[in-house]
Design a protein that fits this description.
The protein has 94 residues and is mostly helical. The chain has one domain. 71% of the residues lie in helices and 0% in strands. The longest helix is centred in the middle third of the chain and has 31 residues, at 35-65. The model has no long low-confidence stretch (mean pLDDT 93).
């Protein structure tokens, strides 16, 4: 019995500048891949990075809403303490 399974991938259409398309063709040829393969990988990489960034920003916003943050003044004091402690450790090692 022959069963045909449909691909779970989706098709999109995008307009690409001729200069960029030349680069796409160049890279696709060098990798021995199709334009479609290259476009799919590029889109996947970009959207995964964008989602990671959006999640990072959301985490920061959640921390701010929960009161988990330092003011500019507190941050400057914290950095100053780090520098002071590092200098003290260096002097003690000498």
């Amino acid at each position: 019995m022959y069963t045909c399974s449909m691909s779970k991938s989706q098709i999109i259409t995008a307009r690409i500048d001729p200069e960029v398309m030349e680069l796409v063709d160049r890279v696709a040829k060098a990798k021995g891949r199709s334009r479609s393969w290259l476009a799919a990988r590029a889109i996947e990489k970009m959207v995964r990075a964008e989602v990671a960034f959006m999640e990072f920003v959301q985490e920061g916003e959640d921390d701010i809403a929960a009161g988990r943050f330092l003011t500019q003044e507190q941050m400057e004091e914290w950095i100053e303490d780090l520098v002071h402690n590092r200098q003290a450790v260096r002097q003690a090692a000498e």
